[in-house]
Structure formats: C-alpha cells, structure tokens
Amino acid sequence: MLSLKDIKKDYVVGDSTVSALKGVSIDFRENEFVSILGPSGCGKTTLLNIIGGLDRYTSGDLNINGKSTKDFKDCDWDSYRNHSIGFVFQSYNLIPHQTVLSNVELALTLSGVSKSERRERAVKALEQVGLGDQLHKKPNQMSGGQMQRVAIARALVNEPDILLADEPTGALDTETSVQIMELLKSISKDKLIIMVTHNPELAMKYSSRIIKLLDGKVIDDSDPLDKNVVEPIKKPEKEPTKADKKAAKKERKKLKTSMSFLTALSLSRNNLMTKKARTLLTSFAGSIGIIGIALILSISNGVQLYIDQVQSDTLSSYPLQITKTTASIGEIMNTMAKNHEDSANHDKDKVYSQNAMGEMINTLMEETKVNNLEKFKKYLDDNSDLKDLTSDVQYTYATTLNVFTESDSGVMQVNPSTLLEDMGYMSSTQMEAMSMSGSMGGMMGMGTDVWSEMIDNEELIDKQYDVIAGRLPEKYNEVVLVVDKNNEINDYVLYSLGLLDPSSLNGIVRRAMAGEDISVDSEQHVYTYDELLDLKFKVVPTPDFYKKKDGVWEDMTGDESYMKKAVANGTEISVVGILRPDEDASSASISGAIGYRHDLMTYLIDEVDKSEIVKEQIANPDIDVFTGLKFKTDETATDTDSSSETVSDSTADTESKADKTADSSDTDKKAGLVAGDSSMEIPEGMTEEQYKALMEQSGASDTGELADMGMNAMGSMDMSAIQGGDMSSLTETQKKYIASLSDEQMELMKQMLKEQSDTNADQLANSGKYSTSNYDNNMKTLGYSVVEDPDSINIYPVDFASKEKIIDIIDDYNDSVGEEDKIEYTDYVGLMMSSITSIINAISYVLIAFVAISLVVSSIMIGIITYISVLERTKEIGILRSIGASKRDISRVFNAETVIVGFVAGALGIIISYLLTIPINMIIAHLTDVPIRASIPVSAAVILIAISVCLTLIAGLFPSRVAAKKDPVIALRTE
Length: 975
What we know:
Layout: E1 2-13, E2 16-28, E3 32-37, H1 44-51, E4 59-64, E5 67-68, H2 74-84, E6 85-88, H3 100-111, H4 115-128, H5 144-156, E7 162-166, H6 174-187, E8 192-196, H7 200-206, E9 209-214, E10 217-221, H8 242-255, H9 261-273, H10 276-317, E11 320-323, E12 325-327, H11 329-343, H12 356-367, E13 368-370, H13 373-381, H14 386-389, E14 390-396, E15 403-407, E16 410-415, H15 419-423, H16 428-438, E17 451-453, H17 458-464, E18 465-470, E19 478-482, H18 491-497, H19 508-513, H20 529-533, E20 536-539, E21 546-549, E22 552-555, H21 560-568, E23 571-581, E24 594-596, H22 598-610, H23 612-619, E25 630-631, H24 642-675, H25 688-697, H26 704-715, H27 719-724, H28 732-740, H29 743-765, E26 770-771, H30 775-781, E27 792-797, H31 800-816, E28 826-827, H32 828-832, H33 836-872, H34 874-882, H35 887-927, H36 938-955, H37 957-964, H38 968-973
C-alpha cells in the first residue's frame, strides 16, 4: 500500500546542507498502528510530513498503491492529501474562527461534496468521536481533549486510507491521552495509522508496530514486512489505450481538489468578524476615496439633471426647425461679410457707395431654397433611431386655425388674433410677420397668437406643467388653458380670448399718439377654475368664409349675419384643463395660453379638403375660383401690343354682348315661367303639354297678381341664396313667393341660376384677362394642406447630445439624395448656446482625478492590512494545505478577504455619501435658487462599489501570492 524506498531529505541552511533523512526504506501494511519513536531532531516529523505530502523528499521514492510519486505535480499532492491522508496534530490546528462543524466540513468542501452530504458526514464523524452535541461551538470554547477529538473527526471525515498523528497526546493529560489512544487504536482496525510520539509507554501499549529512528536512519522495526515472502511476479502491464487514458484523466480530474469562492468568502468573513473593529476602520479608510468621488458625482449628477431638464425644456421651445422655404442665416451672414471685404478694395481719397441692399437681396435670393419636406418626412418616419433621440417630431401645416367666440353682441375672432391691429399698434402685414415669428417654436418670444400646438409627449408635459384643474386633452376638440407660475393670465390673452371686452381697445394706440385722454382697464379680474373650464370656442375652416355668387366665390367675412351662421356651424372646442408651469421647469413647450392637440390640425386639414371650393379649385387648376379668370402660365404672353389688346377687348365685348343677348332670351322665358307669367312663349326644349302642366301648377288661371309679385320679388332676390338653400337673407315677400313655388318651379329656378353662373364663369374665363394670383396662392389662402407634405418640421431633441445625433441623421439624408432634395435647417439652440455639459464633465473629471489619489492610497493601505492578515493567518494556511488545499485555494481565501473589505468599504462610502447629500442639498437650497438636488445615481453607486472591490482585490494580489507560496510545514509550526 505505502512504501518508502531509500528516502533522503536534505535542507540547505546558508552555505551548508543538513541531512534530515538518510536513506529511509519502510513498507507499511494497509491497516496497522505504527508508532515512530526517536529523540528530537532524529527526523520523525520530517518523515511524517513526507508521507503526508506536506514536504518533498530529495531523493528516493514514495510509492502509493504501487504508484511512484516522483512525477507528482502540486495538484497531485493536493489530491493525495485530501483523499488519502488525514492529519492529527499535537496542537490540534483547528481554525479558531470556524465552528466545530465547519472545521470538520472543510476537507469535504475541498473534495466537492454537496452541502447536504457534507453536513451529514461531518455530524457522523463528530458523533463517532463523541462530540455529536458540540457542533456549533468554537474551538476556544472546548477542552484540549475535545479539540483533539475534533481534529481526529476532521482527519476521518474524508475517509482517508492513512491517518498521520504527530504527537497526538503531547498537549493532553494522562487520562485524556488514554482516551485518544483508545480511539486511534479502534480506528487502526480499518486504516493505517502512523503516529510520531516521544512516549514509548503509549507506543508499546497501543501500537502494533514500533519503528525507531536515530540521526535520520531506521535503527529498529518491531514488525517489518516478511522479506522472505516471495511476491508473485506481476505480468507486464499492457500499453494503455486511448479509452484508458481518457478514463484515468477523468478520474484525476474528479479527485482534483478545489475550494469554491463561496467557501473562501465564508472563511474570510468569519476571520474578519473576529476583528470587527479593525475591519471597520480599514473599510472606513478605504471608503474615504469612495466618499469623495461619490459626493462629486452626486453634485455633478444634480447639476447634470438640472442641465438635462433645462436642455429638455429649452429644446422643447427651440427645436430644430425645417421649413419649406428656408435660408441659412449663417451662410447669408458669411456671404455678406465676404462680399463686403471684397468690395472694400479701393483708395480712400473719395467717398464710395456701399451696395449693402443689393448684396443683401442677391445673397438672400442665392441662399433661399425650397425644401422637399414630403420626401424628408417619409425618411424621418422610417428612421427607427429618431424616436429615442426626440421628445417629439412636430409637423406643421399652412392650414389656418380660425377660432371664434360667440356672444350676444356677435362673433369675435380669437385666433389668429387681430387685437394689436385693432389697437392701431401695427398693420396687418406686420401682424402676419409677428404671427410667423411666433410660430417658430417661440424663438423670438413675440408671437401674437395665443393658441399653440402642444408637443405630442405627455411625459414631458407632465414634467413641465402641473394640472391644477381638470385634465389634459384627450380628443381633437379639447384644449387646455395655461397660466403662469403665479396663477395669472396676461391681460393680452384675456382680451384675445374675449374674457375682457377687446372693443374698448380699438384704436387706442392711434388715439394715444394723437394726444387724447384714454383709460385702460387696470382692475385685477378674478376667475374661478370652473368659469375657465366652461369656456367654449368654435373652429371654422377657412373655406367656410366663402360663398359662391355668379360663378365665383366671394369672401363673406365682412357679412356679419353670414359669419354668425358660419361660426354657429363650426366645431365646438372645450377647455378641459388648466396647466401651471412646474416650479423647477426652466422653460415651457406650450408657447401660447391655449394648447391644442395635433389631431385638431389633422381634423381641420380633412375638413378643408372636403370643402366645395377646394374641390372646385382642384378640379379647375387653370381657373381662379375667386375671380373666374385664368391663371397666367409660362406660355402666356407678358407684353401684348396695346392696340391689338384694345381690338381684342372690343371684339370680346361685342361677342360677349351678342352671347348675352342670345342666351338671355331662353333664361328670361324660364324666369317668366317661374314667376307665373302665362304670356311668355314656350321656352326652347319644353313641350306645350309640359308648359300647360307647369302653368296649371302655378295657378296661372289668375296669374296677373302672382306674375307681378313674382317679377318684383325676383328682381331684388339674392339668387345664390336660393342656389345654396340659404333663405336667411331673403325678405318676407321673397320667402312668401318662394313658398308658393312648386317643386318643378324650384328646380327650374335652380337650373336657371346654374346656367347664369356657368355663363358668367365662362365669360370671365374667356375674357382675355388673367388672374393676378396663382393656383398655389389660392390653395394656401384656403388653408389647403396635405398631411404627407408639411409646411414645416419641428424636431425636439431630448438633449444636446441627441441633437448632435439628429444633425448627423439629417447630414446622412443629405448625403444620400441629390442636390435638389438636400435639406436646409435652422438650429436655434446651436446659434444661442454651446454645450455646457462638456464643461461640467471636465470639472467633474478633474475633481475625480484628485480624489482618486486618495482611493489609490487607501487601496495600498488595504493591501498592507491584507499582508498583515496573511502573517496572522499563517498557521491557517498550513492547516488548509494539510487537508488538501492548493496554492490557488490559499490565494483565493485572501482574495476573498480583500473582496469583502473592498465591498464593505464601497458600501460604507456610498451610505455615508447618501447621508451627506442631505445637508449638502440644504446648503445648496439656502445659498441659491437653482433647483439642484445632489443625488448619487444607482448605477454610479454600483460602479463605485465595484471599483472599490476591484482596487482592493488588486491591492491584495501580492499578499495572496505570498500566502500561496508559504511552505505548509513552516506554516504549521507558526504560532
């Protein structure tokens, strides 16, 4: 089983060599109790350590089950100690910070035994040595005999083949020594026990074989193996096959010892718990750097969150704007500056003119271009990355949002607001320019309209506003009213919305400039939430302002009665909520006092598209529906000879008169029939029977009075009212007359009116004159838009970094299309601000770099503490090695200790930092009005703890390497 052949062991001490063993050869039986006796220094313990694999022989060979150990590697010796050897030491060598049960389980842990089986076997081993009721005691709570029993249980738990006992009774009293020897004797029935002792009496009494050593040599063996026994000649072994090699490799791998990191953590945790004060102080020292960095990050994060909010709020008011017709402001300024520099190339002996106006106009014409937004919109809609980079992508259209209020005194236009024009403050042209500037995302902050479209991002609106009454709009016909942070509404808004009487301001600016005494309502008005939530408005599509007369469409906005009806038929809009800007919001996305949803605009676009006037204009793209005249085309002559034009006009007039005379006869006949005039001739296309039937229906037997009334009524009647079915403009006489007509007469009248309208339209279209407008202008006037082709695109980036990525997306689009489809855009924020974030980050990085020095210093200190721990736990290293722990396992134990210290230091630093942010926030709030809240991001806290663990782990690599390299024999001798 175990055979030593000529084992020699030499130690080099300085320049000399000491021989501890001088050719020892011993063969052992599988089960016997062998005692090795001899004076101190004879080599007994050295021999025991070589047998146990703790020490290496210099020469000779140690055979285990017939296998030589000459080629054993460290892992083979570790496995041998763990599976084949059990050590019982004179000083017990129990790990003091582990319980009795944990000490016994340790060897099984290295063997990879499951937790349940490990516990079962350890309890059984302790019961075998009579300690089944002492499982959870610590070694320092037990007597010497009990501790030695624990050591024996630990040696037996892995069921080794050999039990090595080094002076097992050396530290025990006589009675306890007898008990231990009786226990070892009973064990020797099944195992080989080799005991080193100085007590020959115990050896003689309990041992079955006694070997004596002197000066490193065997001088006596009481029961050697019989040398005369001839062992059978072994057959030569066959060359192992691949399968045999694979099986042997698998078996070696199975027997390989390995300590799990959890076991290492458990060992180190228990060790650290025995030194709580030192561990906490060390961890606190390591946490100082973490605290510094965490506080810098918390303040930096607070500032960054504030900047992010400012960015988000600012970018919700100042988007990247792309309009259909645009000009690059930067390019215009650069071009003009360059042209000015080039023109200043002359002597200074005279005064020269500077062509500033000409340059400006030429540059504006050169730099102005039309963007193909229809194609670009499709590109944006197909871009999946855009959603994460933007708060919203808003498409605006040329369709005008006409909003009115109704009252007893009539209707009032709320949007677009005409208040400033009515006051005499500016002209309608200036008003239009102001309105355009107001639509630029609030860029200039001076728009005249109080209605603005909300961004389609409820989360951002929730951040920027508090709903103080009602709710956010959910339908296209619902809006919200926005007050300021003091719950106040500007009186301009009150006048514009009709809450105050705007007529009191009519001409007030002109009168004031003329020196008149004027007074303005300066009383502070108060409104309840319910009063404001009861506000109702009417939205009227632009085509509803027009009415067809004589073949053309007439603007009816000046007709009060018509506008009342148009507004009454408009779409009702309700105020469903009142918003107030959040105190911490630095900017707001709703530029007006009334915020409406985007689907109100899409609804309005659809209504415009369905109107009769728009359909007619689309069906007749060459004819101006407002004048009936043709639009000029590129082929139309611009310079016509005046004489020929006169002739042409004269000829046209003559032909027109002739046509009118010819066409009027039949119309007059139909009019007479409608009026009930029986004397009229039968109109062309009507039979005599039809004529008689029509006359009978009209009561023509006594037609004189009816005819007179009919002709008089028709003479002043608004025929287009009849055609459109609108009787409100007719007199009572005309209404009475219309009521007297039969269905056939009404149809005849409508036919007559249509013919008149068509004739008039045809005459206008062929008059030789041309409209001063064009098709596109007419469609724009009518508010016609196509959803796929917006008038402008407002892109609201999430932050400045996202804005740069969006610009990259636009640049990628421009690179992929031709010159005619390239997009020009205006970056208002880019013109106004530079990136503040980079400055904050730079400052943070510098501060972190300084604080990181303390973190490195504390890590070095932890490394030193770990090295001290290595020195303190040297004996534990020897114990672990004796039960089969490898060098890597030892290294893992101390790495686990540094991980624990690093984690505690990091966690402690984060906890202290969180506590310190409370007074820091109080100080910031006291010193400044800026809503900065220092807070450590969760991700940063986790990263800092991980950094702390990594740094302490790195700092502990050297001490753990030192621990792994320690000689187990020397380590076991350390006290």
